Each structure stands twice: as structure tokens, then as C-alpha cells.
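Recap from last week: sequence in, structure out.
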Amino acid sequence: MTHKRILFVCLGNICRSPAAQHIMESTAVAAQIPLICDSCGTANYHVGRPSDSRMRAALARAGYEYNGHRGRQFTRRDFMNFDLIVAQDDHNYADMLRLAQSDIDRSKLCKMRDFFSDEDRARFSEVPDPYYGAEDGFDEVIALLERSSVRLLAQLCYADATTGEK
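Predicted C-alpha cells:
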């Protein structure tokens, strides 16, 4: 498998997308699958700031180590730098779709929901934003992202197996 480059995107880049990045990196390392992951937000609210302290605490409770992430905003250049761009919700997806300038750009976009199990799809229409909720919402997002990341990684490996990429 070639080193796939995956970008996870949410609104402010301090909760969902950095958590998805951390979880996917850890999942890939455990499976010995080479991936390069990053995250960003569609808005510039938190550029340069660390991930939300509640998300860092939820990641720590789940056994993930904070990597010093600082928020950044999505740009058109990200279409060139990443193979797959994974939106955490419909609004993020629509924002990036508006920035896409070609069919190639659009082909790189998907939603994290695309990797939900049937059970998770029955409960969630997208990765919920825990920012304005209680602490347990952060833990719920971590669990959802863990399940979805395993499915995303499996799909990447399957796609490589069917195309013959190494």
C-alpha cells in the first residue's frame, strides 16, 4: 500500500477532526498500514489553537496521546496535498464542495458517515459536534470515530488490494 494521505475536516478543527486524525493514526499504526493523516476546519475560529481540552481529556481516557495539534483552516491547496478528504458533517462537506474546482477535487471528498456501521447510521446522521454539550458527548464521538476508522482503514486496504497498489 502506498502512503495514503488523509485529511479529516470539521468546523473549527479543535474537536472532531483532530480526534479523527489521532484515532486513524493510531489505528493505522496498530495495523501496520502506512498513512499520513492531518486535520483542519472549514472556519478560521481556532487557527493556531490547541484541541479543545475536553476532547484532549476524552482522547486520554480512551488511551490516545495528544500530539500537540494546532488548529488550521482548510484551503484549496488541500485538494492537491491529500488523497482523501473526510468531512465530519454535511455542512463541512458542502463547504469543501464549494471550494472544489474539478472532478478530481470532488472525487477526493467523502463523509465520515460513509464509514458508519448500520447501527451507527441508525443513531447518527453525521459525527455529532460535542462542543456545546456535556463531557459524555466527547466520549461518544471518540467511540464513534474508533468504529468508523476501522471501517475506513479496511476500505482503503480493500481498494488497494483490488487495484494492486503496494
